Amino acid sequence: MDARQLWLRFEPYHDVTYFTPESRAATDALGCKGGWMGYFGMRAAPLGAAPPELVTAVFYNFAPRMVSRALPDAWAVASPAEYLRVRLEGVDGALRRMLGSVDTPEIAEAATLARAAALAAPLAGRPLAAANRALPWPAEPHLALWHACTILREARGDGHVAALVAHGVGPCQALALYAREHSLDPAYMRAARGWTVEEWEEADVPGDLAAVERATDAAALAPWEALGASRTSRFIDLMTPLALRIASANEAMRVNPMALDPVRELAVPGWNT
Question: A Pfam family matched by this chain, by name (predicted)?
Fold first, then answer.
């Protein structure tokens, strides 16, 4: 099983959570001051009204000052429960726009498989995955699929943070290494995570990012090993057209700090015919 190929299929489905017009409208309606307050409020909400220090530690690669501009002020705007409510509202609207019909047998089947994988994801040492797992499962299949993808995504991300720490790669250093490896604009990456030029230059030192990525992939395999090869293969088949459709419709997939480009990387001829 290829953990990255699986990630390419569930990450786009999760990413509608934060960077879509529907998501921004939902958090603006709450009273958030800018998109980043909405982002930190929605993503951190499963942790409760977490202080900025905790969120900085768990999210890992954001500069502390960037988190502190949003938190704890976001909790004065609305409760974590309200952020969770509007998060789901924005996801629902974005998926309906991007996918058209969400009431399909394929989405229902994908949701069943994704839920089984998500329930098999290890939670020890994975705070964001565990916090999302503790939330109620949405009833509608397209939202249950999103919830499962979110757990799987955060479980992989938590494992990635553990690998970075174990290999001695710091938050800003990880971004600098990744930007160089994937030919991403350093100015864009600094702005996306709030680091200064001086901090970036100081952190831009060698590190074994390849070893980190191998450890991340290895730590992300448990859900799929539990699901089994046959059902994992079926999940891939079901998610590929969904990932491609979302990636084509979501502007956040054009340029992003993950260098994620499902349309190019999946390269499925005739997928949209």
Answer: HTH_67
